[in-house]
Design a protein that fits this description.
Number of strands: 7
Oligomer: single chain
CATH topology of the largest domain: 2-enoyl-CoA Hydratase, Chain A, domain 1
Helix content: 40-55%
Radius of gyration: 18 Å
Strand content: 5-15%
CATH superfamily of the largest domain: 2-enoyl-CoA Hydratase, Chain A, domain 1
Distance between the termini: 30 Å
Length: 227
């Protein structure tokens, strides 16, 4: 199940049973929604993996990775192979007590085809990624947190609270932060710093930036509108 959090109360749920093509289309529609703040992903990861295996050319992982808004994922059970490739496209991942991780396509004579060989090393480092990819190592929750595969061990409710906190941030600022961090993997430091400065200048021209200043001076919570 995928859940979009617009604020503390409004949610949109999408069933994995719709298939990978329908889910990819829904994510692209979400990306075009100016009111979207954050996507919280949880539910049946095995079903996500099955959908990707059934329709490998649907562009589902690519659609998740391309979202301009931050993505928070909570894994509460098995998250194997294609499902883990999908989870790796999230910006922040949390693991529940029953979470299990594995990316062992090579053990079955296959290779990842949804970014696993690229995103896994970026998340956990080359050595840990090679152990998982080649030997089929399946880190437990503590190990997953230690190597950076998950950013914390948490209940679904606690992970959702993080998503809600992100939803309360300035939406344009959050999108710019995501853009700058994503670019940092490919840019030299000097170019990354230039991008950060450019985005900061752009942010100063937004109504949200002015609202942030006003709310600070008036000692109240900001009311960001994404403008």
């Amino acid at each position: 199940m995928l859940i979009e959090i617009r604020d503390a109360t409004a949610r949109l749920a999408l069933a994995v049973g719709q298939g990978a093509f329908a889910l990819a289309d829904a994510l692209r529609e979400l990306d075009a929604d100016p009111d979207a703040r954050v996507l919280f992903v949880s539910g049946d990861w095995e079903a996500v993996g099955a959908a990707l295996r059934a329709d490998p050319d649907a562009g589902l992982v690519e659609a998740l990775a391309a979202l301009r808004i931050p993505v928070v994922a909570w894994v509460g059970g098995p998250c194997f192979d294609e499902a883990l490739e999908f989870a790796l496209a999230a910006d922040v991942r949390f693991a529940g007590a029953a979470a299990a991780f594995r990316m062992a396509q090579a053990r079955g004579g296959r290779t990842p085809r949804h970014g696993g060989t690229q995103r896994l090393p970026r998340a956990v480092g080359r050595g840990a990624a090679m152990r998982m990819l080649l030997a089929g190592d399946a880190p437990d929750v503590d190990e997953a947190v230690r190597i950076g595969l998950a950013q914390g061990a948490a209940s679904e409710a606690d992970a959702e609270r993080v998503a809600l906190a992100i939803a309360g941030a300035g939406p344009i600022a959050a999108q710019y932060v995501k853009e700058a961090v994503a670019a940092s993997a490919d840019l030299p430091l000097r170019d990354g710093l230039r991008l950060e400065a450019d985005l900061s200048v752009l942010l100063h021209a937004t109504a949200d930036r002015a609202e942030g200043v006003r709310s600070f001076l008036e000692k109240r919570l900001p009311r960001f509108e994404g403008r």
